[in-house]
Nitroreductase
Amino acid sequence: MNYNNIEELINDRHSVKQFDPNYKIPHEEMDEMIQLATKAPSSVNMQPWRFAVVESDEAKAKLRPLIRFNTPQNDTSSAMIVIFGDLQCLENSEHIYSSAVEHGMMPKEVKEKNLPIIQGMYNQLPRQAMSDIVKIDSTLAAMQLMLIARTYGYDTNPIGGFEHDKIGEALGYPLDRYVPVLIIAIGKAVKEGRPSYRMSVERVVNYL
Ligand SMILES: Cc1cc2nc3c(=O)[nH]c(=O)nc-3n(C[C@H](O)[C@H](O)[C@H](O)COP(=O)(O)O)c2cc1C
């Protein structure tokens, strides 16, 4: 899909819940879309988002009892992308900051000064605070993924209605480490999404 501008792209995204069940997204394309989505900003660039791309019949069967009224999306989508936030994302901190230095994106001194501070800060955060951070970060990537999907000719439906306490274990993402954030159903639409109402700016904005 070609879009002339971001406004057109944003206006064109609607939740779609019925997809062509025979269409699978090639992994190369899925990887490209996810790679672009991960250009999203994240707290101290820790990139805690993890994507479980549920596409096989076996994996979808595991998901089915855990997604309440959202079974049509599971049954017809190319994939249900279950996004988790990694509470132990700090494990990648050395890799991320060293790579930034290697690629000339960050002076070595900045890494050496900032990384220990960041590690110290994250290490002493309570679970709830860390969970809030990884959820915010992962949600930003999720939104980008939905818009990027449109440019690849796919449609999506964000899904929050699932068993948050069970989904991780079912997919090999244990709850003590991974916080479930959102599922994104993705595929080729067979039934177009409908425009949905948005409140006026006056109702939601307050200039102070
Ligand atoms: C966090 C979140 C959770 C949602 N959960 C569900 C869900 O469980 N099932 C569903 O069909 N749609 C779900 N939606 C989709 C919303 O109903 C939809 O985005 C909203 O009505 C606006 O419509 P639009 O996406 O077409 O603009 C969810 C959306 C968000 C952002």
Q: What stands out?
A: Residues 30 and 149 are 9 Å apart (CA to CA). The beta strands are 49-54, 79-86, 155-159, 178-187. The domain at 6-88+127-204 is CATH 3.40.109.10 (NADH Oxidase).
